[in-house]
Specification:
2 copies of one chain form a homodimer. With about 450 residues, chain A is an alpha/beta fold. Chain A has 2 domains: about 170 residues, Aspartate Aminotransferase, domain 1 (Alpha-Beta Complex), CATH 3.90.1150; about 270 residues, Type I PLP-dependent aspartate aminotransferase-like (Major domain) (Aspartate Aminotransferase, domain 2). Helices cover about 35% and strands about 15% of the residues of chain A. Chain A contains 13 helices and 15 strands. Chain A has a 7-stranded mixed β-sheet, sandwiched between helices. In chain A, β7, α8 and β8 form a beta-alpha-beta unit. In chain A, α2 packs antiparallel against α10, α7 packs parallel to α8 and α11 runs parallel beside α13. Chains A and B meet through α1, β1, α2, α3 and β4 of A and α1, β1, α2, α3 and β4 of B.
Chain lengths: ~450, ~450
Amino acid sequence: MAGPSTYFDPADTDELAPRTAELVRRRAAAMGPAYRLFYREPLELVRGEGAYVWDRAGVEYLDVYNNVPSVGHAHPRVVAAIAEQAARLNTHTRYLDEATIAYAEDLLGTFPGSLEHVMFTCSGSEANDLALRIAKAATGGGGVIVTRNAYHGGTTEVAAISPSLGGVDSLAPWTRVAHAPGGGADLHAAVASAIADLELVGIRPAALIVDTIFASDGVFPDAAGLSLAVAAIRAAGGLFIADEVQAGFGRLGGGSAGAGPAGGDDAGAAGQNGADLGLWGFARYGLEPDIVTLGKPMGNGHPVAAVVARRAPIEAFAARGRYFNTFGGNPVSIAAAQATLDVVREERFVEHARAIGPRLRRALEQIDSPRIGEVRGQGLFLGVDLVDDAGRPDEALAIEVVNALRQRRILLAASGPGNNTLKIRPPLVFNDTDASRLVGELDAVLKELS
Amino acid sequence: MAGPSTYFDPADTDELAPRTAELVRRRAAAMGPAYRLFYREPLELVRGEGAYVWDRAGVEYLDVYNNVPSVGHAHPRVVAAIAEQAARLNTHTRYLDEATIAYAEDLLGTFPGSLEHVMFTCSGSEANDLALRIAKAATGGGGVIVTRNAYHGGTTEVAAISPSLGGVDSLAPWTRVAHAPGGGADLHAAVASAIADLELVGIRPAALIVDTIFASDGVFPDAAGLSLAVAAIRAAGGLFIADEVQAGFGRLGGGSAGAGPAGGDDAGAAGQNGADLGLWGFARYGLEPDIVTLGKPMGNGHPVAAVVARRAPIEAFAARGRYFNTFGGNPVSIAAAQATLDVVREERFVEHARAIGPRLRRALEQIDSPRIGEVRGQGLFLGVDLVDDAGRPDEALAIEVVNALRQRRILLAASGPGNNTLKIRPPLVFNDTDASRLVGELDAVLKELS
């Protein structure tokens, strides 16, 4: 579980500047006790551009955390697209809108031809929720298999398959947990065991769902046994759902899983229109999922998400009733999504992530500190394990490092099952100068704390 | 169930103009079989302003259907707020943002003081889903009581309490259906019976949830027995959730339930700050819900929604885990919501709805046609029953009327359990000229079809 200890402790306001303390107080009074803020000293951000954000005092921070503003904070193309469409019309999918259809076609062109349809939602949570509804309708099953520290969202249904949110005790009785990749674990064996466990109690498997970069499990770009696990769930009558909410839209820089430390040069399976964009994590495994879910970076921050799926499961779902989502696929959200996809292509962010990722990774590996354990990842999605002198996960150190970097104007967070993995997933405009700044500051912080 | 028969039949493309037929074909190919379009001749809308929308050929339509663009299509204040904030910064609730806090405070000021906190989501579905999570955490119960033809959204959890979506067969085993208002039904007796039925099988009641205008049940502004039903669910240990996704943000024009045909002049309970905005349907009953959900008109079309609740249930929920919604409460969504709320106040839409609603209702009642049955409603949310010669619900007539009005450039839809109730809920800028146009065209259509 992403430990609450990396968050601000509401009881700890003594050291805060008066304005910060007052905002914290007003926020808790109005928004209640369930919300969390980052850092011991919460940040009040007022402006963003590219990979940088600024606080109210005008201090600039390098954003190494936010994967949502994927093509850069406040990208002018995306902002203009939103403003222009909002000034024209914002309706819904019960009227015809050519731009919505054109975006659907454009997006599908980046997927294998077997993935024929797209349906729009407002959030990744809604997308995963809809994916499960579709999978259950299509298979007649109810069992869902997830990885050990999975996070798939916040609706009732997807919270019940997200052990990272409330622990394994919070899962639904039809959820089974397969061991995550890492530490020599093989997904195939774990998924086969979960299928057997479901069948033992008479629950038909509906789906195996995995985040294709295994972010909350600690960032694993080359999961051993994933392809065989997919074959196993299909043999048991279930579907394979690839959750691309975090990995998708080019962050991984294409490439093939298992092609060596940097992932190789192969950008994965070709899309429907023959395009080879390398936008999707599943493509690195040569897989063709039954359902794919999209979210976070899809509209560069605008609330838009989607389910992409084969025809047969959607037909089974449609036979049970119509689909409508008031805001899902509205013309303004589509304008944001189309502009974002256009920018990913025109500014060649897949190629950029593929080029800079391995350089950043090597630079992180070369930091001279016994506190750095394994460095993993692909493209601009990296995980850096922080360890103690004996090489064990060091959550306390990770918390110190995250807060010390914030003071040095570098924003990132810790994640993974031990909450000791630095999660590095900046906006894709992140360049070599930014990388040097990150590596330099991390080096300095580790020296300071050691 | 809102009958699929008011929707376009994908098999019926012969009469369509070539461009429309081609868009319908491309849309079905890309977006699949679960989506629906309005009307026998689907509309391609390209522009909106106030209560009007235009199709690609430049033909203007009077919008009597869309409650989402509540302060008018493409309202310049809302568009400017979105554009300005999108150009500055779009992040999330793990950083401090004064405008988000200020909006939360402003919004809470329109509620009774017992409703202390607000939490943000992207859609009404997510809001109702979160409300149920909170209610279940707070009560330890699992049973949920809804009205006969309720619609509360599209996530797995809320679809399972929405009989209007997939029929009563699609409901969860912990859902109980109480008879809706209308036809002399008393909600108190129906809810008491549902509570007894839950308890009989050992399910503890968690919540009674009602749309306070009972829109999908046929539009009932004065539900007999609602206050006693709320007392009954509380006595059984459950919470009362007021779903204001459709009724909220001023459409009902304030007033008290049961104060006569036009609802009276009392604008309901005062808010925390003493303001008397009459924004909420529950206030007309003098009720103080445990949880309120908001959505559709909250950002005038921008995807933003919320849960407003008492402190105790949110504390119980927070004790089980933190809350985060990537897009929920982001600064751009908040800017849209704040601008919308400001415009509702400054352009005095509550007073406008209170004034024009009764005039429109009387004009509809005065249409000289035996096909018009009961006319119900409050403010700018009205239902007009269409009946046959014997006074029975006439769904076939409603379908003809909806399509004939579309040809006469008036957009509305049919709803209610018999799908024979015309649902009149235009943008709140709808004025007396618009009302005359609607009434005149409806009169003409009924004469033509009789």
